[in-house]
Amino acid sequence: MFDTISKLFNEFNSYKKFFAENHKSHRRLVFYSERSIYYQTFSPFLDELLKDPSITCSYITSDANDPILTCHHERLYPFYFNFFLKSVFDKMDAKCFVFTMPDLNTYHLKKSKHTQEYIYLFHAFSSTHLQYNEKAFDAYDTVFCVGSHHIKEIETREKLYQLPHKKLLPIGYPRMDIVYQKYQAYQKQFTQKTILIAPTWSMASLFENGIRQLLDALAQTDYRVVVRPHPEFLKRRKSLAISLQDYISTQPNFIWEDQLLREDSLYEADLLITDRSGIAFEYAFGTERPVLFIDTPLKEHNKNWKKLNIEPIELQLRNKVGVSISLDNLHKVLPIIEGLLKNSNNWRETLKAMRSEHVFNWNCSAKEGATYIKAHSSLKCNP
Questions:
Q1: Count of other CB atoms within 10 angstroms of residue 356
Q2: Which of 281, 250, 244, 252 is nearest to 266 (CA)?
Q3: How many CB atoms lie within 10 A of CB 71?
Q4: 340 class by beta-carbon count within 10 Å (0-12 exposed, 13-18 middle, 19+ buried)
């Protein structure tokens, strides 16, 4: 009880500070993050923006353990809100409010009439109409598109349902740029081959379908196997996560990696195994190595996705950035893994060509996005 009261009191003080008159200039530009892991989406843009000494901004997080709360940059002001979050949203008077959270206006977090522009940044390469809710992006004024597939999908939806047009900007995907840059500088730490297993989090995911058969097969090898659960899986399926972790602890070459802000396993991995996760494209385009896909049921959050008559990009490219195997054929997985590891370098030119075709502003996307944000957050505010 006392702890709750203390948290309420602290948030109330933060609320007063955030909306204080002397903080007004620092909330012209505001970022919002649901969890600490999404800082990796925002950080490239923030790094570019804060190179300009005239830029200040506020960063709101709903994660009490977000490292941003200990940030000491003199022009970046972090705030934590939970109890007061809806009130903050309702009262927000930013020039630009930047998110990587879909479904604005769908649930309890709504747009404020006092905020001029709501900007969405993707935290995945995937299409907009299969793995997201149907109305996930309808409320945004501006969308930073990763590739031409996002523009085509959103424009098609707007036309089909006669929705207001948004600004659809060809920005790219800074997260993927960062993976590429870090991988180029990375020095491998292990001589043995490393397999990274990183599924998505739905009830149709690899962790719900076939994971033990895959792990049992890999236990017969000398590969170093890193199992990296999605944060939503850890939150929603705690008992299953504990069960998997217990099993993995019995295998000498297996590692359970739930410190999700650590990224060495992504660069160390000689092969990624996933199901329907967007990490496949960060890995394939960022490290120029192939992916092994396990064909679990579709991660289908929009039952009407076929109305757009556009094949989602993650389905279009699935067997172009790697190899897929059905759940029924998992007993054949080891020769496929061996083949992908042996021929990994042969994929490089193909992956580079696909990246060039499907990703805007390769290796300079953060600068493109920051230029737009800077210009629009600096414009004269509405009275």
A1: 10
A2: 281
A3: 14
A4: buried
Q: What's the CA gap between 33 and 278, in Å, rounded?
A: 19
| Local structure of residue 131 (DSSP, 8 states) | S
d(CA 59, CA 46): 10
CATH 1.10.3470 assigned to domain 17-173+363-377? The reply is: no
Average pLDDT over residues 359-380: 92
| Domain over 177-358 is classified CATH 3.40.50.2000 | yes
Place of tokens 């109330």: 12
Cβ-based neighbour number of residue 99 at 10 Å = 23
Assign 383 a pLDDT band (cuts: 50, 70, 90). Answer: very low
Range(s) of the chain covered by CATH 3.40.50.2000: 177-358
Torsion angle (degrees, nearest 10) of CA 99, 101, 107, 111: 10
pLDDT (0 to 100) of residue 1: 65
DSSP state, 288?
-
